[in-house]
DNA sequence: TATGAATGAGTATTCATTCAT
DNA sequence: AATGAATGAATACTCATTCAT
C-alpha cells in the first residue's frame, strides 16, 4: 500500500515536472504572451484539463516557475559564497556561482530578464517575488563589499553603489549569453570576468589611483 | 503652393511623431502585449484608423520604433568614440556615450532589453535589425580593443571575447537602471564604471598579472 | 446468502438515496448549471465515478429527481381528493393537498417551477414527463369541475378554462413561497386560499351574478 | 450635420434594440445557460465583437433586459391602477394590467419566472433588482387592500397576507400561459380571473361567512 | 465495486485590423 | 484624410464524462 502510494506520488511529481520543464522551455522560447496553454498541453503530451488540474492558471504556472528557479539561484549563490572566507575569494565565488547557475540553466536567462524587464508599477506577483529575491542576493553582496571596503581590500566607494554595479555587471555578462551561450569556454569566460572585476582591463595598472566620491 | 505642401508635410510629420512618442512610452511602460491600439489612439488623441494610415500594424510600429532608436544609439556612440584618439580615451568614451544615451532615453531601456530578450529563432524583423545594430556596435568596439591589445595597452585576451564581455558589462550597467534610474549621479556612476572597467575594484593592484589564454 | 444480498441491496438503496437527497438540495439551491458533479460528489461523500455508476448523466439524475417527486405529488393529491365525495370538499381537498405537498417539500418548489419554465419545444425528457404529470393532475381536476358545473354548484364556465385557472391559481400560491415559506401559518393560508377560490374576496357578495360566456 | 448625427444615433438605437429583442427571445426560449453569445450574434446578425461593444458581458446584457422589462411592468400597472378610484375597480385594474402586460410580452414570462426562481442567496444583480421591483408592486397592492379592508369592501384579513396571495394568484395565472398563451381569449380569461378573485367560484354564495383570523 | 486523474469539446471575451461614411 | 463601428479569429479556462487501477 505504502509502495503504491509512493509510486503514485512519484508519478504525479514526474508529471508535474514534465509540465514544468516544457513550460519553462516554451516561456523562454516565446515569452509569456506568445505561447498558448493548448500548445503547452500538446508539447507536454497532456490534455489541457490536466495542465489545469496541476496549475491554477497560466499566470500561476509562470509565477511558480520564476519563483522556484529564482530561489534556486539565490540559494546556490549563497551557499557557494559562504564556503569561502577572504573577501577576494568570496567575490570570485559570487561571480563564479552566478555565471555557473545561468550557464547551467540557459532557458532561465530569458525568463529572468523578461521578468525583471516588466514594468514595476504593474506589480504582478512573479515580478514582485523575483525582485525580492534579487534584493536578497544584493543584500548578501553588499555585506561582503562593506567588509572589503572597511579592511582596505577594495576601493573606497559607497557599498550600495558598488553592489548595483556588480549586480549589473554580472547580469550583463549573463545577458550576453542570450544570443549565444558559449558551450565550452565557461572556464575562460569566468577567468576573464573575475580578472576584469578585480583588476580591470589595463595591462599596466595606473600609477595614481583617482579619488572616489 | 509649395508652402502649403510643406506645411502639410510638417503637420504630417508632427502627427507621426506624436504617435511615435506615445507609442514608445506605452511600449516601455506596459510591454508589447499589455496595451491595445485603442489605448494608443486615445492617448495619442487620434482615431484608430488614423494610426493605421501611418503604420501598417502594431508590430510594424514597434519595429519602426526599435529600429529608429537603435540606429540613434549606434550613431551617437560611434560619433563620440571617433572624436577621441587614444585607446583608453576611446574606451572611456564608449562607456560614457552608451551609458549617457540610455540615461537620456530611459524608456528605451526596457524596449532594448525586451527585444533582445525575444528568442532569436523567431527572426521577427525588429529583433533581427536590433541584433544587426548591436553587431555593428560590437564590431566598432572590437576594432578598438584589437588595437589596444596589439599596442600593449590592454591585457592580451581574445578581442572577440573581450568585446562580448564589455558589451555585456555595459548592458548590465544600464540594466541596473531598469529598477531605478539614478537621477543625479550619472557623473559618479560613469566615473566608477570607467574605473572598474579599466582598473578593477582592488585597491592595491595585484603584483603579478595572471596568464590569459 | 439471501440476507447478504438484501443487505447489499439495502446499502445500495441507501447510497442512491444519499446521492438523490444531496442532488435535490443542490439543484434547488443553485439551479442546474450552478453546481458541478464534482461538488455533488464531495457533498454526497462519494467518488465522482460512483455517482456515475448509479446515474447515467447529470441530466438523467435531474430527470429522475423531477419525475419521482412529481409522481409523488400527483399520487398524493389524487388520493386525498378521492377520499372526499362532495364537489366543494373535493375542491378544498385539492387545494389543501397541493399546498401541503409543496409546503412539506420546499426544495421541490424551485425544481417544479424551473422545469416548467424550460421551453417546451426543447422536449427534454424531464420537462416532457413533468408536463405529462401536470396533465394527469389537470385531467383529474377537470372531472371534478365538470361535475360541479353540471350539478349547479359552480359557475357555468368552460371546465377546461376553469381548470387552467385553478391550476394557475394554486401554482401562484405555491410560487409566492419561493421567496419565503410561511413556517407556521399553513393552516391560515389554506383557509384563506380556500375561501378566496370558493367565495372571492368581497365581503358582501354582489347581488347580481354576471353572465359568463 | 444635426441630421446626420441623429440618424446615426437612431441607427445605433435600432441596432441595440435588435440585439435586445433577439437576446430576450433567446433567453426566454433557452434560459441563461443554454444559449451562447455566438448564437446570439448569429441570430441578431451581428459579429460577436459588435455585441460586446454594446453590452459588457452576457450577464450584464441579461440584467439590462430583466431590469428594463420589469420596470416597464411596474410602471404600466401603477399607471393603470391610478386611473381608477374605487377599491373594486382598482383591484380589477390591477389584475387586468398585470395580465395584459404579460399577454403582450409572452417572452418575458419565462424570464420573469426563471429569475424569481433563482436562489435568493446568490444575490445576483438581476435577481436583486427584480425582487425590488416586485416589492414595489406589492407595496402598491397592499395600500389598496388596506383601504378596502378598512372601508368594509373586502374580507377582514391581514393585508400583507392578502397581498402575497393576490400577487401569487396573478403570477399563477400568468404562469399557466407558459405552456400556451391563449391568443384570442384574453378578454374572457380576464373576466373569469376578476370574477374568481372578487366573487369566488361558487354559483350561490355561502350564506354564512366564516370567521377570519 | 469504488476511485479520481485525465480528457477535450465547448464558451465567454479580447483586440488587431478593416472599411463605409 | 480622418473616423470609429464592425468584424471574427484566437485563447484561457471549465466541467461532464470516461476508464485504468
TrEMBL record, chains A, B, C, D:
InterPro entries: Homeodomain-like_sf, HTH-type_Tx_Regulator, HTH_TetR, KstR2_TetR_C, Tet_transcr_reg_TetR-rel_C_sf. It holds the Pfam family TetR_C_24. Residues 36-55 bind DNA. SUPFAM superfamilies: Homeodomain-like, Tetracyclin repressor-like, C-terminal domain. Keywords: DNA-binding. The keyword DNA-binding applies. One of its GO terms (molecular function) is DNA binding. Residues 13-73 form the HTH tetR-type domain. It comes from the Bacteria. This is HTH tetR-type domain-containing protein. It comes from candidate division WOR-3 bacterium JGI_Cruoil_03_51_56. The lineage of its organism: Bacteria, Bacteria division WOR-3.
Amino acid at each position: 500500500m505504502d509502495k503504491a502510494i509512493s509510486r503514485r506520488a512519484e508519478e504525479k511529481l514526474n508529471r508535474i515536472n514534465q509540465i514544468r520543464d516544457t513550460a519553462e522551455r516554451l516561456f523562454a522560447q516565446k515569452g509569456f504572451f506568445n505561447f498558448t496553454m493548448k500548445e503547452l498541453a500538446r508539447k507536454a503530451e497532456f490534455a489541457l484539463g490536466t495542465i489545469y488540474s496541476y496549475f491554477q492558471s497560466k499566470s500561476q504556472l509562470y509565477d511558480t516557475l520564476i519563483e522556484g528557479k529564482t530561489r534556486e539561484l539565490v540559494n546556490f549563490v549563497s551557499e557557494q559564497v559562504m564556503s569561502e572566507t577572504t573577501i577576494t575569494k568570496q567575490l570570485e565565488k559570487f561571480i563564479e556561482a552566478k555565471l555557473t547557475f545561468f550557464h547551467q540553466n540557459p532557458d532561465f536567462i530569458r525568463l529572468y530578464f523578461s521578468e525583471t524587464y516588466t514594468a514595476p508599477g504593474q506589480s504582478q506577483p512573479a515580478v514582485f517575488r523575483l525582485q525580492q529575491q534579487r534584493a536578497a542576493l544584493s543584500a548578501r553582496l553588499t555585506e561582503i563589499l562593506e567588509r572589503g571596503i572597511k579592511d582596505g581590500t577594495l576601493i573606497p566607494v559607497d557599498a550600495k553603489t558598488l553592489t548595483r554595479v556588480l549586480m549589473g555587471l554580472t547580469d550583463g555578462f549573463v545577458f550576453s549569453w542570450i544570443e549565444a551561450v558559449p558551450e565550452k569556454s565557461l572556464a575562460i569566460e569566468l577567468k576573464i570576468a573575475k580578472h576584469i572585476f578585480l583588476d580591470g582591463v589595463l595591462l599596466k595598472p595606473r600609477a595614481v589611483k583617482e579619488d572616489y566620491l
